[in-house]
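Pilot study result, target chain (267 residues):
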Amino acid sequence: MTTVAIDTGVGPLLRSWREQRRISQLELALRADSSARHISFIETGRSRPSEEMILRLAEHLDIPVRERNALLLVGGYAPRYAQTAFDDPALGALREGMDRLLQAYEPYPALVVDGTYDVVAANRGMAMLMDPVAEHLLVPPLNAMRLTLHPEGLAPRILNLREWRADLLSQMERQIALARSAQLRELYEEVAGYPVPESTGSTGCVPAPSLPFALPLLIEHDGEVLSFVCSIATFNTPMDVTVAELAIETFLPADRATADHLRSLTS
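Predicted structure:
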């Protein structure tokens, strides 16, 4: 993922993150065991923060790991967090663990995406939903947002596409605000510009289970209407940029008919 470059010092960058989080200098100072005066001096460039202070402020501002490295570089320090390629042997145990998790979740769909929604792993349940999808969307690297929202992807078969699309775009907007990624912004502008197939409607057109706790994904497959709720899991306190940006997405059947249909396909 490419980070948006900002030609400025570490102080103004920290101030920008603080304002984005809507935290006052006093509140940040109390969280970081400092003083509002010292925070002000750092933000205006009158005081050069130590490496420890940059990391402490980044922690309390919930700044992504990738951006913490950028702050350290601007502040004159070496990056703290490694960025290991996903296929690197050093992540072998992680990949094996995720593969076992995805396989154990079958026949229900599940996949792993990186920080720009490229699919790095998926199970057979997910592959089942991809049939049929235009071949050009299946050329690696597969991108989950393109697969879902493209008119030649899953979009024509998603019966509540307008609601599901709005939710996905809102999710991307929140991530862009957090990560400030030019690559993610380009992806957002691309998928937000896809036309919505006229054949899709709202959930009011299709019988749906009562799910006050989550928006269901209603998708047609093999003549059946399948209903899923989605959950997203990330790694706790990651120390590597690549791992920090991984997300495991699982689709849980929202009704017994969906669960029975998926089990019938695998049996």
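One observation from the pilot: The CA atoms of residues 114 and 246 lie 5 Å apart. A full batch analysis is planned for the follow-on phase.
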